[in-house]
Amino acid sequence: MPRRKSKRIQHWRLRQYVVKKSLFLFFISFWCLSIYSQTSTDSRYYQAEIDYQTTKWSEALKGFKLLFSDTALAPNSAVAYRISVCHERLGSIHEALIYAEKACALDTSESEYLLHYAKLLEMKYDYAKSWDIRLKLIAQEPRFISRYEEALQNALNRNAYQQGLQITQMWNAQFGQNLNVTQKTAQLFLALNDTNAAKLEYERLLNKHQGRPDIIQAYNAFLEQISPKTKNKTLCPQAFAELNTGNSDYAYSIIKSCAQENPENLSLLERQFLIAWINNDLPEMESCIENFYAYFPFLETHARYAEAVKIFWIANRTDNNIPEFTLKESPSMHWQYIHAQILYAINQTDLAQKQLQSIINSNPNNTEIPRFYINKLLNEIPAK
pTM to 2 decimals? Predict the structure, then answer.
């Protein structure tokens, strides 16, 4: 029986088989490696998240940092945020700020990241930088009242009262005018020395809700706030006793001490400014003016008159010509002597003399007027 001829090996088929098998083994290996890598990443994130939720900040920080620094993984905003929170809880605000900024850069719309970043900036007193974030948060969630409260506090921390008014206007536009916002807006206007605008805020609310007792009570409290405080007034009579002996330096030290003990007493501050004028003490006059703005921002006429007096005092000592003084009267009876002396300095001697006589006639007991200096100025005015 003839022997069967053996089959000849086809090398092209063998090569094809080897290539296919190699590719199959490669893809299987890559798939297994991907699954292992993904499983490993998930496991690391899961463990770090458990540490984070159980407030194990050091362990969570270590785990999340390993994930964030893994070059095989894309940067993750949630991981950056958690690293920032861990740093904050561990007291490292500088590092917390770095990762908070990274989280916001990776996801610009997540309000939780923005809130955290703004809070950290404000912890470092960087209110100006957090201001734009506060505005963005309001734009994202305009129905969240806390967004307006936090932005308003930001403005107040910077004494940015105009920006504070911007927030209250947005607040009113979104929710309508109410007592809470009206009170905040009125205080902002007072800080800007605009008493009329502050009163108008209350009056608009009263017109809107006529007869509401809580609004009426709040408005009355506001009116009491902007009225000069004269209760428990300390007259400090020893200051004028010294002043009327010509001892104006000692009189000033007494009145200044009284005014410091009672900074909200308008009468004392008026007298302090008067004696500072008599002493030709420019720094003390400026100090009094600062206190007018600080304690009595609603009394614009006092601060403006005092500023005008100061400017005249400087000009009268530096200019060759007689300076102008356009204010017709003083807002305080304690400053009538100042006004008379200015009238005398600008050659209006008749008016100055009448002013001095008026002071004497309206204060027959001479207890609270600088009688010594009034008589001195009257003697300087030539008799007709």
Answer: 0.53
